[in-house]
Design brief:
27% helix, 7-stranded parallel sheet, 11 helices, 7-stranded antiparallel sheet, Immunoglobulin-like, alpha/beta, 22 strands
């Protein structure tokens, strides 16, 4: 989990005692918030990466636009005090500290200068929290489909002889969105699951992994901010059923490439559809179209009863795939407009195959896809869990309540409800033919 407060009372933010400064939209964070965060990570098993500011600690003449997203004048000492408070509360659940956010979008600092600031932060944190080696995260470059900034950063890290990269950096971080809600590459429904989007996604993670290889693969490569469309998601796309299939596909594709972690940018608890403009004081805590969950109405929000979004179902489906080694299913690129296919063989010999028919079931030209699998050995049993939606709107349906995974839905408490259903998959020696309906995903488990 990536936590990036705009300003915290723990850091003695300007305006302390007089209310938060105008730049601290969304309010401030204090010890009670850290205590609640600790409870969340204890309950979930998550870890936290906390972000510290970059804009306010560099030469202000290096800002590209001082009026864009203004931040309080927080000093490095204040930021380090926040890290110290977070560490005292979270302990080992504080995974790392991220420096800045998309620095290449907001300042003219070079990658080498940025890395120097990263090391400066690490030295300051080490002085404040001795005997606890806290590593940092960067460069968290912009969402471009290229990796130019990441490659420049890796070059700077590799050339630096004053520090060991793996002792400074916990992760090599990148951001990626295949489309946008505010930029020039506006995402639309058909594009989300299109073959061209898949190919763009394939190139981006591969470039990230290749950059990490230049540092001898000693630092994990991660997508620490990602989703279907930047700037809070595209309405009618990011909150549509299509994002269930897209997220399952994306997570498998990124993992197969070698990405260690994908973190989806989402909202905290918010009312479904209650989107606030970027200039609103409530923007940081408002609804996002690409959110993983939201409350149906105010009373549900007050009762902490959140509803799972289509994105959440895709993430849940991914969790059904066990750890293991990817098996090449040799899916041709010419099949991408209809199908995505992945295979994972686990240590116990089980083979999990995920087949995703990305065609829109509401379109008359969509067809079932009969997929014949030539298995690596003979398996005795095969069964499948299906991700699907019963809504008539197909991939464009905004009714998350119509989505099921193995016949089950996710309750407002976050737990699956109903009896899980698994369909039998026929086998013939080391071969199996599976019929995948449009707009569905089959998660198939083969056992000996």
């Amino acid at each position: 989990m990536r936590h990036a407060p705009p300003c915290t009372a723990l850091c003695s933010c300007p305006g302390r005692g007089r209310g938060p400064p105008a730049q601290a939209i969304g309010g401030v964070v204090d010890q009670s918030d850290l205590d609640q965060l600790k409870k969340l990570v204890d309950d979930s098993g998550w870890q936290v990466t906390i972000a510290v500011p970059l804009k306010s600690v560099i030469d202000q003449a290096r800002l590209k636009d001082a009026t864009k997203d203004p931040t309080p004048p927080v000093t490095m000492d204040q930021a380090v005090a926040e890290v110290k408070a977070a560490h005292q509360t979270l302990g080992d659940d504080l995974l790392a500290v991220e420096v800045g956010n998309e620095f290449d979008n907001i300042i003219t600092t070079t990658s080498a200068e940025y890395y120097a600031t990263v090391k400066q932060y690490q030295a300051a944190i080490a002085a404040a929290i001795p005997h606890n080696h806290i590593t940092l995260v960067g460069p968290s470059a912009n969402t471009s489909s290229t990796n130019n900034v990441l490659n420049d950063f890796v070059t700077a890290v590799a050339r630096d002889t004053t520090a060991t990269p793996s002792k400074t950096l916990e992760e090599l971080s990148s951001h990626f969105y295949p489309g946008s809600h505010c930029g020039t590459s506006t995402m639309w429904l058909g594009a989300l699951t299109a073959a061209v989007t898949y190919l763009k996604r394939r190139a981006k993670p591969q470039g990230v992994v290749d950059a990490g290889a230049r540092l001898d693969n000693k630092i994990p490569s991660v997508m620490n901010e990602s989703n279907s469309a930047s700037c809070s998601g595209q309405p009618g796309v990011s909150n549509a059923y299509a994002s269930s299939l897209w997220s399952l596909d994306y997570l498998l594709q990124a993992t197969q490439t070698g990405i260690s972690r994908v973190q989806f940018h989402t909202n905290t608890a918010a009312i479904c559809g209650d989107f606030k403009a970027r200039t609103s004081p409530d923007y940081p805590i408002s609804y996002r179209y690409y959110g993983a969950f939201c409350a149906a109405e105010r009373s549900a929000l007050d009762a902490n009863q959140l509803s799972a979004s289509p994105l959440y179902y895709g993430i849940c489906a991914f969790r059904h795939v066990p750890q293991g080694t990817f098996v090449d299913l040799k899916l041709a690129d010419t099949d991408l407009p209809q199908l995505r296919a992945y295979g994972v063989k686990s240590r116990d010999g089980k083979l999990t195959v995920v087949l995703i028919n990305v065609q829109d079931p509401s379109t008359t030209t969509s067809t079932d896809d009969a997929v014949t699998l030539n298995l690596p050995s003979v398996y005795r049993n095969g069964s499948a869990v299906t991700l699907q939606s019963s809504a008539p709107g197909g991939l464009g349906s905004l009714d998350a309540s119509a989505i099921t995974l193995g016949g089950r839905t996710v309750s407002p408490s976050g737990l699956p409800t109903g009896h899980q259903t698994r369909s039998r998959v026929a086998l013939s020696g080391s071969s199996s033919t599976v019929n995948v309906a449009p707009g569905t995903a089959q998660i198939i488990t083969f056992t000996r």
